[in-house]
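Hi there. Long-time user, first ticket. I'm pasting a complex I've been working with (about 888 residues overall). I'd like to know whether the download I got is complete or cut off, because the file seemed smaller than I expected. Thanks.
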Amino acid sequence: MIVEIFCSASENEIDKVEKWLIPSLLLQKNIRKINLTIINYKGKGTVYKGISTIGIVSIQEVSGKRQLGFGEAHNLAFDKIKPKDYFLIINPDVYLDENSLERAISTIKKEEKIAIVEARQLPFEHPKEFDIKTGETPWASGSFMLVRSSFFEKVGGFDPNFWMYCEDVDLSWRAWLNGYKVIHNPAIVFYHFTGNYFGYDETRYYLEHFWSARNFLYLANKYWGESGERNALKLFEKTEYPSNFKSEVEKSYKLLKKSKQSVLTTQEYEKIKLQKSRIKILGFNRYHKFKEI
Amino acid sequence: MNNNLTIYRLCRDQATINRIMDENKDYGLNSSVLITGPDYFEFLQNILTDCKTEFALVCHDDVVLPLSIDRRVQECIKKADQEFGEERWGVVGNAGIEFLTNEVVRFVRDPHSAIIPADSRPIPVVAIDGNTLLLNLKNLKNKEVKMPKILSGFHFYDTALLIETYRSGLIVAVDPTLYVYHLSGGNQLQFDKEAKKGNFRKYWASLFVNHTVLTLNGLVEIEIEPSYLIPGSGDGRKDFYQLAEEVIDKAYNKEKPFVYIITRTQLRRINILERLLVAYRMTTNFNKEDINFCLLLVVNNTGLDEEKTKKIVEEIQTKYSDLNIKIIIEKNNSKKFPRVNAISSALREVDDQNSYIWIVDDDDFMLPEGLKKLEKFFDGKTILMGNVLCFEEKWNDFDQYPTSSIAKVNFFNPQNYHKGVFGDNHVPVTAVLFPFKVLEKIFKKFDLEGDYYEDYAIVMLSRNYAEIKFYPVYISGVSYHGGNTVLENNRTHWNYSLITFLSEMVNSGTIKKWEYDSNISREPFEKELMELRARFSRWHSLIRIARPIVRFAKKTKILKISNSILGEPFKKQSNFSNPKISSNQAKKKGNKTAK
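Hi, the file is complete. Here it is re-exported in full:
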């Protein structure tokens, strides 16, 4: 079994790829070969300076000529590598359980209609809902998603307009709209042991704050048009972000909107309505119910 | 007077100059350079430019210096040189906000506080009070540190000096050697006015991305243009607190310390043990440039036969052959104190006298990135305490992973270690890094006969041999699950263990007379707290019973709670009103939208 893996990293994250991700790939059970493609998303110099083959893992680096967003970076890797059946998108700071790849692959192989398989993250579990019997979940996190290549190609990959954050929600929703399934399988496990999980310093804002907010507006407009945008803006206005932060987010969103006006056809609206248990916004930046414990 | 030091005071008027001159004469103090006229920025800039000595002590005119100040300053220089390296520090003061803990540290008596502090080492700070500042002019001049021209007046000069010092790559710290009596509590009103309208906001916003500035006068909120969050904007501003951390990290250039992790296992829960071993691999790999590790895995009371034990041990050794693991198989010692015995056996395997010992249960695990922040404080003497996350988990016996695992953020508070004298344990042992020498002494001196509470006893006894320093950095995870000891029904063995350890403490003079006196005054309050807790716990059982009923009622739609509107967005707005909280909650709950 040969597995294609994409991991976007810069000089800030490559250390963890070498210290955590690669050692865990070396121990994967029943996997003959892994092609790990490191996407140098900043586009400068070379990020990975280690040897190109370690055990079953072959490592190569691809790079755009400029800084790429998360979606763009993976689209680039997809175009260059052209993975045959499926490929794994993975975070640089994780450690995969030894059975995770095999289990993810056997899950996606179960049904042609499965577009994305998501793993369970430990010890900090994602509280997102999923159907215990079928594994169906509204959206899959980009921290570990095995994606069917034919689906990815069919839908044109990630929407690069997101730049970063929420593009995984969008890709998942497009899977549901195109008749595919998004599956969470809790038997597939990866570890993300980090004390820094709680480490956002409250003296400042991070990329996640800005782009999650901006993309929340974009998602609302993309799927629910003008009325969705109006409601999303109302929710965003109610947050306690300072006014200049809000106006910068709105400015960025308006710039995007100029080039990308969402005009949904009645048919598309109907399709979204049919998927209302999956395609939903339940609050500012919340796209799922919490998992029942 | 020391040849390498000049004492400066900026005085409000000539009368003050005269008063200080008289006082200096009366008490035989060495003369100071007394200046009146310029504002504090100009005053400091003149010192940075014109002072001929290597060091300058700069004080307010209402600061009373101890008669031993010359000696104290020399001690201060020596301590800072030793702690950070001669070329690494720029300014030492006596009050500030400690790096990493973000706690106020005050080696000063003033109208705000009269508590005599206990620390003895120079502490790096991210905010400083300007009442007394020792300037390392040699370093500051070498790095061409200058006061910002845009600022003037009598506020924020200390913060500006701190910022410019860190920007130049030098540390700012506080130290008890500069303990003084400051007769004024400062002018908060004037500070607030300056914080709202002054040029400091412009100065800060041009350099940094933080919208909150920590100062001893409170948090200063500054509007920051968020252009730094847009890639390709060419915004070169930095995170000030990250910048300070980088400078501080470079300054602590110590030998690579050794950390021994002691884990006792019965090999009965291999699935859970595997999690610890994976965490150990991640910890080792992540910190390999800075820390040497050895996991001392002590196997006792397995209940397994020799052959089976051998087989499991071999499997572990093969699977984790890349890691430094030493497995110690103890003979099944009639089930007598296996936990204490395991630590004792493991300690005999430790070669490095200056190493640290980290006791981690086999169902707990390390958080690999935590130690990176604490490593700089490893001195082989101080007991270092970090923070611990509690994971409430459900495990089936043969499952490889927990069926559920929920992180509880504020479940433990090891910072309350001193409350151990009231009879309760506040410190999971995985939160503590003990210097080897401290544990060695405890195991030599005391008869630790018992199981359970051995962690409590060790923490309590260790206080007699070293200082404890708490840092709010998450270093480990503790698993609470159905089968583990806290829920055991038969408490007999617990009771014997507890009373044996308490008897040891009572009879070994662990608690000092003064400590007893100070704590007994708090006892009524603590009792009240205990009563409250007991009352809550009675309600808790009712809630436990009610919870499944409510859940059932929700499922069967008897109880209608419309907290979600499937596919109909925005009809009902959620309670996400606070982005700061919501984003943190999201983090806490793993509610990331991507990556």
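A couple of notes from our side: Chain B touches chain A through 77 residues (CB under 8 Å). DSSP finds 18 helices and 23 strands in chain B.
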